[in-house]
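User: Please predict the structure of the protein below. I'd like the answer in structure-token form so I can feed it into my own downstream comparison script.

Assistant: Understood. Taking the following sequence of 268 residues as input:
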Amino acid sequence: MTQPLASLRKSLACAYPAAAAETIALGAPALDRRLGGGILRAALHEAYAGTAADAPAATGFALALAKRALAGAEKPLLWARQEALTAESGAPYPPGLADIGLDPAAIAFIRVRDAKEALQAGAEAGRCATVGATLIELFGEARAYDLTASRRLALAAAAAGAPIFVTRVSASPAPSAAASRWLVRAAPSRALAANAPGSAAFAIFLLRQRGGAAGQEQHEWRVEWNRDRGAFEDRTFDASSLSGPVASLSVGGAPGESAPQRAGRKFG
């Protein structure tokens, strides 16, 4: 459902429950242990695409996290998206959303012109207890998304007790109030029986975790999304299990430097 910002303000009845240290488990045991149980629920989280081609993967990862946040709650997902992203990576695809486990009819989709409008819509929705999770999808440098804007979103998430996810494409990260920051790229899925297409797979690298030691372990996780469970499954990267060459993250860096080292240096 697409709503203009003006009608969104009128339709959302805001309430402000106390913020808690509750976490959202991702479902993959090894990853959840590394996160101390999961990501904070009442917080801001960021997902960056390593390249423009990985933009759908970053969005898919954030949507899967939102699905985890919405589990058991009859609340909508608010999705604010810049118009430029439609030309770059296509429009949201209802069957694809259903494959993640999200009901397209339960998503309030807002298409905006620029980052400023996306952040405004996300902040207003994010602070309302009637919204179960908020996704703000930005394109390019999005200069409006600065430290002040991220703090505003973090406070809104804390006030409403629901997560706000921000995805970035073709951007250089700057300091922010995000509780976690992820670098995401698409990973090959494992074929099912009769060579049927496998589950959505992601190669993810934790760049930052509030109070944690993100980026210091130089570790990449490979996870798959299990729609039936509504959870991630650990498919930790193992080069020896692949028959072909392994591609590293395309984030620049000196020859011989590992992909996580380059990612940590650029996105840390």
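That's the full token string. The first strand starts at residue 23 and ends at 24.
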